[in-house]
Amino acid sequence: MKRAFYSGLFMILCASAATAQEMKAAPLRTDHPLVGAWKIELPELSCYEMLNLRANGTKRTMSGKEISESIFQMSAYPSRRGFYKWVDKIIKNNGKPDCTGDITPIGDIAVSYIYLHPDGTRFLLCAAENLNECIGPYVRQEII
Nearest to residue 102, comparing CAs of 18, 3, 13, 20? Predict the structure, then answer.
């Protein structure tokens, strides 16, 4: 049941924009509050996901057995509603299943919205600029 919930929500987030347009990485300012490593624990699935958002507009994700690389574009500042718009395109994948058992195809484009907690230590990943369909929290990780 929990796997179906997470799988469904991930599908909503990933299916938001499957366009054929050419997309390029868009570098972020180095002090962008979302640059860094983030982790979500999914105990119901006995799994976790790690994101490493780089200032050069690339991302590495480890989710279950899946390891993928993406290019992305993200707004520099939150909208009036407090969300950062994030457009992410998978460019490399090891072909193994993620936490939900799915394999994200190369070329997949997802449009998501990030609601960053005011203290900057966690965020919710949402399907729209509201808190109705979100997963999280993703928690900032210290890089040692």
Answer: 3
Is residue 15 predicted with pLDDT exceeding 70?
no
Q: What pLDDT is attached to residue 144?
A: 53
Taking residue 127's Cβ as centre, other Cβ atoms within 10 Å add up to 21
- Mention every residue, 6+ apart, whose C-beta is less than 8 A from residue 42: 6, 48, 49, 99
Could you tell me the pTM of the whole model? 0.84
CA proximity to 130, closest of 118, 113, 116, 117: 113
**Domains of the chain with bracketed CATH:** 2-141 (2.40.128)
CA atoms of 50 and 52, how far apart (whole Å): 7
CA–CA gap between residue 93 and residue 106 (Å, rounded):
7
